[in-house]
Structures
1.
Amino acid sequence: MKRLIVFLIILGTFALTAHAQTETLIRNATVLTVTQGTLQNTDVLMRNGKIAAIGKNLKASANARVIDATGKYVMPGIIDCHSHSMLDTINEGTLSVTSMVRTRDVLNTTDVDLYRELAGGVTTLNLLHGSANPIGGLNTVVKIKYGRPASEFLFPGAMPGIKFALGENVKQSSRPNLPGVPRRYPSTRMGVEETIRDAFVRARDYKRTWDEYREAVKKDKNLVPPRRDLQLEPLVEILEGKRYVHAHCYIASEILMLINIADEFGFKIKTFQHVLEGYKVAKEIAAHGAGASIFADSWGYKIEAYDAIPYNAAILTRAGVVVSMNSDSDERARRLNIEAAKAMHWGDLTEEQALKLVTLNPAIQLGIQERVGSLEVGKDADLAIWNGHPFSVYSRVDTTFIDGDIYFDREKDLAQRAALAKERATLEQAEPNKPPARGQSPQTPRRRPSGHEDDAEVEKP
Amino acid sequence: MNSIQRHFSRNGATAQRENITLRRGAVAGEKYVKILLTLILCAGSVLAQQIGNPTMQQGVLPPRGTFAIRNARIVTVSGPDIENGTVVIRDGKIEAVGTNVSVPAGAQMIDGHGLSVYPGMIDAGTNMGLVEVPQGANGTVDLSEVGEFNPNAKAISAVNPHSAHIGVTRVEGITNTLTAPTGGLISGQAALINLLGTSPKEMAVVPQAALVINYPRIGFGGGGFGGGFQQPANLAETLTANERQVEQIRKMLRDAEAYGRAQDAYAKDKSLPRPDRNVVLEPLVPYVRGEQPVIFRADREAEIRGAIRFADEMKLKAIILGGNDASKVASLLKEKNVPVILTGIFSLPSREDDAYDSLYENAAKLQQAGVRFCISTGDAGPEVRNLAQYAGMAAAFGLSKADAVKSVTLYPAQILNVADRLGSIEVGKMANLVVTDGDLLEVRTRIKYLLIDGRPVVLTSRHTELNDAFKNRK
Amino acid sequence: MGIWLPMPKVRSRLLVATLLLLLVVNPLNAQRSAIDTYAITNARIVTVSGPVIERGTVVIRNGLIVAAGANASPPPDARVIDGTGLTVYPGLIDSYTNLALPEAAPGPSPGGGGGGGFFLLQQQQARPPSGPNSTQPAGLQPEVMVEDVIRPGGNEIESWRSAGVTTALTLPRSGIWMGQSALINLSGDTPQQMIVRSPVAMHVGFTPLRTGAYPGSLMGVFSTLRQMMLDAQRYRDAMQSYERNPRGTRRPDTDRSLAALIPVVDGRMPVVMVANSEREITRALDLASEFKLKLIIAGGQEAEKVAERLAKQDVPVLLSLNLPRRTTAALPEADPEPLRVLRERVEAQQTAGKLAKAGVRFAFESGSMTNASDLLSNANKTIESGLQPLDALRAFTIWPAEILGVKDQLGSIEVGKIANLTVTRGDLFERNSRITHVFIDGRPIDVRPAAPGGPPQGRNSLAGMWTVVINLGQGDRTISLTLQQEGERVTGSISGPLGAGEISNGSASNTGEVRFTVSVNVEGQTKEATFTGNLANNQIRGNVTIVGAAPGTFTATRPN
């Protein structure tokens, strides 16, 4: 009985604090603002989902939640610019151009890895289509509001984006030639270029057709409009600068190829993703104005990754490119803090430059820098409290906030474990959960995929 | 410059056979220009080059020197740290450690002011040197041999001393790896190597260090078309298939034991009928006699228990490789004194309801339960250089910092039976040492000096070279 | 004169009347027998539309209910059924089935080249029916109408109506645009006689085609649906524009698929979307909002989590009674089931009650249940978990009638409605009640007793993991035996102290006799053993003979 009461108290406190609290004061922490340096012994006040104040000896209202963060660090929530979490499916791989498909249609908010990412201080994800095609599907930028409905995850005001992909995955170079099974075009980097060029030529014609229609219909209301083509509309948006292109690529030649196409059609690539040979063409990337979203030190897993070096972030940063560190992996997403620190080890970036790699820079790359990416008054209260400097391997997250609400708290997590075990014991006795006398064999459990989800050929389990 | 001109007069394809060796003590500028020119012309024919060459290969093993690292903080690992101490290295061994040691004449002095000296790190769960590029360059993949039973597949024979992975790994302070083959039921024999040497023989510390057995496991998948298809999806069928496989392993080990006895008997008494030699059974003999360790790959609780029971039954000296569920089997591991090489620190917990830190805190739990363990990346090559981070994460979740350092130095040495030679800074041990400007496990720390077998290791690699080539491109 | 003859004037009128009567009564086909008037007397009548009549009579004639009440009396031409102790309900409606469809075309047998997972799914999926000359591939043809392929009779229909179901919504088994459903009575000699209403609705499933063609993923499915609906809107506008003024305009290509979607995008024909989890239902609601569709959800296992939105958007739910339950045996090596799954199974039983409280309209459906008798027993579970019994009855009768557009014809016992009745001894939802009579279109059908509860016979009765205790005269040895059964053929393997290996020559008769041979290691030698036994009460007992050794006995048991 006593345990039940304790459990109910914990549950009640959690329920109360999880959502009702509109004001939280974090006291006496080392605050890594990202844009205004590191502030010692400083308070952060969050109210109504925003950062209300940053300073010393702040005052909060009587019913505010107060957290003593002496000896702790506060950092903006980490933004992962390349994620495939919470998607029921990653690739529509049947066609070379699938700009009509949308990750927004397949969001799965019950993905437990979201919680594990919150435990690593991540608050925002760029959910991308996979790398099965030169032109892939539309992305979704989300805040990891684990436990809330999908509509509340959508990041308000984030620029719409789309995934492009170049290189080995798109050429399907690792698939064997099966007799009687035709290969999908393109199977060389030459064909990749032509696929993209053809798509934009069609998009341009489509745009003209519609522009002409909009003029003509002013005079004749009865004109039937041209057919709406969901595949070409996002490409028109790219041409009009209304949709960001995030292009997965590896080697120097294809990076330059895509820059040429973008110049030819008059649009900008917003980010190159992975771009492991970016350091070889840093000046061209900088001149074009594209950002780079990269791995810290992953290399060698396929031919196009063989020349990757962990100095990539430093070389690109110094060339003036906005660089972010990404995960492309639910596993790596949990430790992006250390991935950012690696740029200090390899390449001698400063702490501030390295911090930006997982905060302000990915925010800029996603068009959300007005709201997140640094700790400034007026920005969204998306942040994490760490028990040590986030760049130390010995540190871990205590609490993660999004819009001022707690979405991960280590103490609460530990406290809940016993209750969950009890719940399991009870549920396993319920009638529909009892194993039948003569049942099928359970499935063989699957091992978790690792590393680079862009390269996974099979759908996530 | 003559060697360069001669090089470029041949076509690119044959040029790959030529290594551009640098004379020691070459003028810095000349060296830079040579590298730059080579790289500019080789950039286009990178793939034409034999995979595995760093742009600069080391064809000469640096000789053992006499060194003294002075005024440094010495993290001996086996005992308390020594502030402001000196380490003397001679003839490949640690000759002296302490605050007041005499330095031999002619020793090269290394000023350790503000620096720390650690034993070189050891990763006991890799395939280092057996694969260069796993996807798209099958010619460089020598991980797993055809067939279920390959005890005579020796990793040391296929390790590529010039693999780019070796260079990029040692410059982060890892001096030794256990390189294991994979595949089948009995994969082969793993080799403990120094990450320095121009031939496998020069690298080998223990060429046949352990037998590797893939204890039949459940759990398939992990991405990729090839993996999931052969396994039955039905757990009951999988378990039955697994039991059959265990039976096969048992049979082969018993055959090896009988073979060993027969050979010994004949050696003593030539009047007995001469038994034929058998290349497959012969290597198994020391392992079935418990003289050498047998590594069992096992992650799930049932598999670990099964492996321990099997090893117990067959009287093998077992080591578990993997061990994700090891903390659930802690008492059995302790009772049977079976150590665990933990490779899953950075794996995602496989079950939906597993606590988010269940794999991070595995090491700490084993330490509390008194189970012997060490920490490994479990990687084939490119990721091994991050070994320190794995140990650091374990320390973030309950393992003490000192134990975290031990888990990548002394503990793996002990588990692999080479604690007399490696794993700590003690007189008489091999001079595998890392000098850092801070905490070895922290990512922001720099490696300043590296010694393997008392030989100085230049802190360059394929990655530093590519960095140098492109960082100033305007 | 002895013979009475009417006067000539009367005679001619009588002649005309007789002729007319003959015409009216003259059967149009062989089915109509002379007696089609029935009366069930002295029964409890649950009309659903009004208060319960504790003791009354229902009269049906010519397929319709002509009287129902305490004061109704059986007409002289009626066959009377004594309803004492019986309860008369409106015939039950199953709102989502594949009844009356021809057998699914079997795919190539699994385990060939492809192995598990992905390819297995592709091979096992029934191919959707295909319309002639369609611009779209099979599975994307909204013009397909199930009324074109239904067939009367068959075992499934027999077992469904013996379970009290008189009417079912039926539709094709698969596809993305699965086709247009029909509401059928589960009796009749021809497909036409079965149809109550067709088409009822357009149906959408969200499983990609897996033929390798687009769409191959769930994302592609949504985009395909979206694009085709946009194309249908444009097709409608283009066709209207052309018809208004064909001169001078190039005629648009006709497209039967797009034409079939026009009533859907115009909001005149409802669309039923399969959706069980919260996110599936939310996605369906979002798509319906986007195109202003008249949405109905089928499945709805987690509908109560979205109840507010369903009520607000006035979206009814065809709620599956195929309540989830654990089907896998307990195996210590298996991973524990996720908490989420354990919770879902328990919560699924509460969905109906919560929907009712939230004011969401719903109707019950069997949702690919294989045992028709589970329909009522699972409805019982929802009652135990909070649904009012009267609402449960409504969900089988008047609510589906309203949702599926036949409220003037079915769903209650009222004069003028189709005479579909389910008669029970005992309350419909009571565990021990029995269905005594079922009337469809005013005619009684043969009620076959339900098969005894439990797993289906024959096919899989030997499957599973057995623990076998063998006695060969020197004490007991215990081994494991895993069996699979496919009709008469038995396969499997043994493992344990006698060795591991596959069995051969395995067979099973339908009287439970089992036989197989297998190699065993006995006393250091490999020998062949033959096992012959009999299956009874979840045990196999029998003899084992080993070549060159004395015979022994064995007992095999399975975990309970």
2.
Amino acid sequence: MNTWLLSEHRRGPSLRFGAPLLAAAAFALLVGGFALAFYWAPEDADQGFSQKIFYVHVPIALTAYACFGWGAWKALRLLWTGERRYDLESYTAIHMGVIFGLLTLVTGSIWAKISWGQWWTWGERQLVLFLILFLFYSSYFMLRYSTDPGPRRERNSAVYALFGVVLIPVSFLAVRIAGTILHPTIFTHEGADLPWEMLVAFIVCLAGMLSLAATLYRVELTGKRIDASLRELRELFA
Amino acid sequence: MSKRFGEKLVLDDLDLVVPRGGFVLVTGPNGSGKTTLLRLCAGLFAPTGGELEVEASRAAIGFLGHEPLVYRELTALENLDLYGRLYRLPERRERAGALLERFGLWRARNERTGTFSRGMLQRLALCRTFLHDPDLLLLDEPFDGLDTEGAELLQAELAERASVTALVATHDPEALAARSTACLALA
Amino acid sequence: MSAYAADVAALARKDILLEVRSRDTLPAMLLFVVSALTIFHFALPSGSSERAETGMLWMAIVFTALLGLTRAFAAEREEGVLDGLVLSPCDRSAIWLGKTIGMTVFLVLAEIVALPAFALFFHPLSWDLVAAVALADIGIASIGTLLAAIAAASRARELLLPLLFLPLAIPVVIGGVGASIASDPASFLGFLILYDGVFAILSWASFEYVVTE
């Protein structure tokens, strides 16, 4: 009897208790975080109110990195153990990463428009880095769509996901040194002296975003697993 | 074990044990999974369900597929030399030469395989298969493309290597009936 | 260890021998790069800076490399020979290394034509640029060989390879152009060395998973 159906898919987080709790936590953290950010934390001396988007943009960016990292971890597990469930987990994590990456580009673009009047600027390192990653992970999806499902596709996707996570620091370094000669960096927001109120608000927002990503990840993963199980059942009874 | 490719279930619930020294013929109509079975045993892919255990290292397996697995732009001798290197064979030149002679390809040894006829390619593929004296033979339609002389040469070669274990897919079981110890019919 | 090196040498030698016999990839790359440089001349309005021209050279290199990479496993694909290599007892990573060495040689040969052509059409080159090109070749060949194997498994391999390759090539272009025009090329060259090291090791280690099923 083909045991792939029952065992391979069902292992891993289930929807029963984890996700509603996580969703509630995400909701609470995000609402709390935004409240803190907009009502409690002081306004930035230079940028004024428009700086508030920092509480949205940067947590989203960091969450995207976390998703790509998580996806790469699952990919590594797939290659290491050969257990096929890791393929879905890796794919879902990267899917989340791309969604958050897209949001990073959008919020970053809005911030650029508010701050400097342009929708895009090559001087903003974070944005440029995300553009490269967005292109890379979009190619990941092209890879998945154009390869027939099976162990081959799983392995190839996993290897490419690993390349992605290595690309992150390499591109970061590349964009940084590019800034010194090619496209001068206009603005760095690695503001070392962040007033503690801002830091607290930021951390709460970050925790909220990560929880949101985790919730969506669980939900989507369960959905994909159900899909796969249904397909298996259909094949069995066909 | 079983093997499926996406939606297609090619092998289902196959339970097979081949003893050392056994010579098993695998028969069945086209599409019954003979090729898949051989490729599974060769380790080219893994089964989707169940277990497969092959007690032979890669260096001990001789695989003959539908493709001759030779480079068209290289000569017969160069191809065998490459495989000889990859299989870490001492005296690979001598071995290659001996096999080419046994299969009647000595005169064509310095010609690019792209110029070979179907029968010559099959003979060369057989040379490649036997080059490293494998303990386990996995042959997919070995008589395909061979003329009577080629078939006789193959029979002679198999007779020489009576102690090998073999799994041979064929739709002409009579040719090897004398040599075989068992027959597996796939449907 | 020496068996591994012997395998790599045998495979690299095989690739170069195949190219010498069939002569299909390298002439195409040479012709392509010279045509590309010619088009770039017309694409750059007069008065364009030397920096822009240097940038264009790197574009030509990347796309010529892509052209060569699409042919990376062509010989193996035609006859299904890759199965033969995979079945042999050699380490799969040796297949990668042999192929990468071969590809690097082709890239270098293409640039032996491209760089003088560029100097002729546009402006003289610095040694930093040559060093950067050599380093870039290693990186491009490394990831390209791996990606070619990944793309080979898909239904649209000619389309997929450029898509997989180009985002990864961006840091190479940054490093290369930077080294070519900066007053302090050392940091860019150092970056290229880092890129090569990191991605070569990653490609070497993961090739096994990409070429077997």
